[in-house]
Amino acid sequence: MSVTPDLECRGINKSFGQFQAVNDVSFSIPAGSFFSILGPSGCGKTSLLRMLAGFSEPDSGEILIKGKSVKGIPPNKRPVNMVFQHLALFPMMNVGDNIAYGLKRRKVSAQEQQRRVADVLERIGLPGIEKKSIDQLSGGQKQRVAIARCLILEPALLLLDEPLGALDLKLREQMKIELKTLQQTFGTTFVYITHDQSEAMVMSDQVAVMNHGRFEQVGSPQTLYYQPETPFVAGFVGNNNRLSGQVIKTAKDFIQVSTESGHIFHTSSSSILETNTAVEMFLRPEAIHIDRDSDKSWQNTMKGRIDNILFDGGNSQLLVRDTASPTQMTVALPQTGKYQKLRQGEIIKLGWNAEQSIAFKAG
Amino acid sequence: MLKLTGKNLSFYLLLMPLLLTLGLLIVLPQLDMLGVSLRERISYGEYKFSFLHYTEFFTEPLYWNTFLRTAVMSIMATLLTLLIAFPIAWYIAKVAQGKNKKLLFLACLIPFWVSELVRTYGWMILLRESGIISGFLQWSGLSSGPVELLYNDITVMTGLIYASMLFMVVPLVSTLEGMDDSLVEAAYDLGASTFTVIRSIILPYAMPGVISGCIVVFMLTLGNYLTPTLLGGKHSLWFTEQIFTQFITRFNWEQGAAFGVLLLTLSSLLVWTGLKLSGQSFKQAVAS
Amino acid sequence: MSRSAIKIRHSLLALAVSASTLSISAQAEELRLLTWGGYAPQEVIDQFEKETGIEVKVTKSNNEDMISKLRATRGAGYDLVQPSQDRITGAQKEYRIYKPIDLSKLKSDRFIASMLDATKKNTSVNGKVYGVPHIWGTSGLIANSDQQNLSFNDLCSDDYKGKVSYRLKRPTLIGFAFAMGEDPFAAYNDQKKYAEILGRVEQKLIQCKSNVKAYWSGGDALINLLRSGEVTLAMGWDAGGWKLHKETGKINFVAPKSGALGWIDTFALPAKGKNDEAAYKWINFVMQPEIAAKITDSAGNFTASVGAENYVNKALSNSYKISYNQTSLDNIKWYPPVPAGLEQLEGKTLDRIKAAQ
């Protein structure tokens, strides 16, 4: 590697009593990227982040920031800053003092402080609010001020601990885009932890999916979406229909699976699987085509009755019950106008090709 | 014009007990005190209006000095109590968990299950020349003869701090409990040292609690009678003692009342100054 | 018991007393007695109740507290009080808190005649008598030694450095004045002369303040200090000394060379007392020699009752005999009534002594 990564972790372990929070995690983040750690609550992502910030030390393993080990360096000496879940803006100081807090600690002159605070406020699009008090700010403004407070120190890494969690949905959508833009304008490496796959997907260059203290897969959002390596990733990233079954035939590009519901489907697989292996098959709702006129041929088809229409604009879905078994499938309903006339109780045909689903060895 | 509609009326009726209590128990006696303080005895049962007892306070160095001494000692006791109570409050609010937290709180409360008199006598039994601590020092060979630990200002201070502790710990714990721990971590993360975190984050955050604790402790200490008198011995001069003496042993109600009014005025003035200096408002301090 | 330790709080509550007395109505007949600790032992109360059916309610107090309480209520709240004889006329002139005593209702033959006459004289205002004697005693020295030849001046002697205690109250000033060869009682009506004497006493007491271990405020506190050996010479009441003598066999009351200071606690009727009949009954009852002896046992001091000494505990008479011979008895300086204004002067003197470093 020619360029030193901003952050490199080697074999990090951390336990709390009997509970292993972080289990042998290694990864590196190239400079200037937006890296997310995605996982359900309790997966160890917060423990990992706190080790990066210096609030706790790993039991074993090494953390290198810009190529230098930070072992034993306390948080106030690390070139790393953190945006806290509830932002932790200091309520007794105004915006300007909040942002200048770190500079003051570095004994930067008052004049210089003032100039840089004004500058950073300009860059986050909130010029001239130095004198406002914290409780005068909206949720989104607080968010940006909290980030500015860290970025003004030009850290090697900015750690973000689910800072969007407390916002309402609309604002969250908006902030996702803003965060991404901020990261690009400042060029700082962001390490972002979240349990919300959408946040991770939208903003990140790279996402690590974490479960039970381990990284399941690290990759770009597209890779995680299209080529999940584990059933957990397939289930956690994006929506999926999950079908259980057994391999009955293997071929070069795909296998045939007999599902518990009595269907035989063609599917791709994550690895080479032998016949009779129990598998779990994942099929994305948006990969399923609704075929009313039955003039196209699909490798896999299934007939079903519409149980429910969940209308949600661009995210509308159908719940379709297999006519031959109790299996229920979620199917994306494209709002192209073509399917406007679908009604509850109608029998429709669903179709998809083998490469659009993926099978993993069960268990 | 104020119209007494049904709703209005019931509001004022509900307010009555409070107003009556305030009026009868607090305002009226104070006004009576003021009245008594402004008269001068001429002969048996004869009085005239006069400021004599106020001028007496300012011209007689003894009274003036006693007041100063009381105020200075009270301020010192308040600050020392704050200094000792802060780490305790921090421990209770932020470090101790569950059962320990309750136990610690209880430990602060227990001394108040017995009366002030008993508590003070407890100190006297410990500290007197023939007391337990003196006995221990002799037994252990740390001292060759009996040690008198009573009857000095340090003992008075100890007693005052001991009696005030709870009233400082409670408001501090309640403000500190409301503080998000991540404020401290954030400051630390932004490069602050432990000392700076305390100075720039924790103290300003806890300020309303600090102020209300200080006001309560200061007032209690200033108005304390038993502790300074019993522990202070022959040099103990305390302003409330002076008031008591004027009222009870000198039969000089007029002078006592004047002292009472002056104590109220001067202590209010001191509290006000304290608030101004710390940039806090009384409302904030009372609200916490 | 000595003139007992006083709960300070009681006095502070004086203002509240007027309110609370409004609610007391006479259900069963009762006598509300404001007195010193030990002056109304339970045994005597029980016997009185059995004989008369009158319930006795006792409140313990001291001279200043009695006056303050009665002043606050203008003489209400109690039916019988027991101030010292020298403190009656001044308080009566100033606050009108007592009513005259109807001597015809008392069995005068039960009183030691000389004491009754002296008290009547000292408690008269405008020809009316406001007090009759009950218990008398003296203030002098209590010493932890066999020394009999002591003076109040010894409280300032280097022999007792840091081992001395006295009250910061008027008896101390007067005792020292006598010890310094003055006659403060003679100067009672000459304020200028009196102020001069006080000035000298003040100087002396400030000079030897370093001798003082602590100023005592209650008899029990003094007894504790003496018993523990922290104090070896104190100015105090005879009863306290005798109590310690009975306990230790060593510490005892000593009449000082300049003469012990004699006080007589009296019976007086508060101006708004509600049950004078019961008060007279109580006075006549406790002046019977056997009853008086019981009170002497409890209070530690002798009474003005004729013939009571025959019933008094031997140990007490013994201690008494060590403390007093005929000469020292004759030398007792009895307090004359305190004229108005003196206590102001004394108060300031005491303040200055307390404040001196």
Protein described:
The complex is a heterotrimer of chains A (363), B (288) and C (357). Chain A has helices at residues 45-53, 95-105, 110-123, 139-151, 169-186, 197-203, 221-226, 231-236; strands spanning 7-16, 19-29, 34-38, 60-65, 68-69, 80-83, 157-161, 189-194, 206-211, 214-219, 241-250, 255-259, 264-269, 278-283, 289-291, 300-310, 317-322, 328-332, 347-352, 357-361. Chain A has 363 residues and is of the alpha+beta class. In chain A, the strands form 4 sheets. Chain A has a 6-stranded mixed sheet, sandwiched between helices. In chain A, strands 11-12-13-20-14 form a 5-stranded mixed beta barrel. A 5-stranded antiparallel sheet of chain A has the order 15-19-16-17-18, with no helix packed on it. In chain A, strand 4 (60-65) and strand 5 (68-69) form a beta hairpin. Chain A is globular, with a radius of gyration of 25 Å. Chain A starts with 6 loop residues before the first strand and ends with a strand. The model of chain A has no long low-confidence stretch (mean pLDDT 90). Chain B has 288 residues and is mostly helical. Chain B has one domain (50-287): MetI-like (MetI-like fold), CATH 1.10.3720. Chain B has helices at 6-37, 52-59, 61-95, 98-109, 116-127, 132-139, 153-177, 181-189, 194-223, 226-232, 239-249, 253-278, 282-287, and strands at 39-43, 46-49. Chain B has a two-stranded antiparallel ribbon. Chain C has 357 residues and is α/β, with parallel strands linked by helices. Chain C has 2 domains: 8-137 and 262-319, D-Maltodextrin-Binding Protein, domain 2 (3-Layer(aba) Sandwich); 139-261 and 335-355, D-Maltodextrin-Binding Protein, domain 2, CATH 3.40.190. Helices cover 43% and strands 15% of the residues of chain C. Chain C has 15 helices and 14 strands. Chain C has helices at 8-12, 14-22, 42-52, 63-73, 88-95, 113-122, 170-179, 191-207, 219-227, 238-248, 276-286, 289-299, 314-323, 326-330, 342-355; strands at residues 30-35, 55-60, 80-81, 98-99, 124-125, 128-129, 132-143, 164-165, 233-237, 252-254, 261-267, 269-270, 302-303, 333-334. The longest helix of chain C has 17 residues, at 191-207. The radius of gyration of chain C is 20 Å and the shape is globular. Classes of the chains: A alpha+beta (363), B mainly alpha (288), C alpha/beta (357).
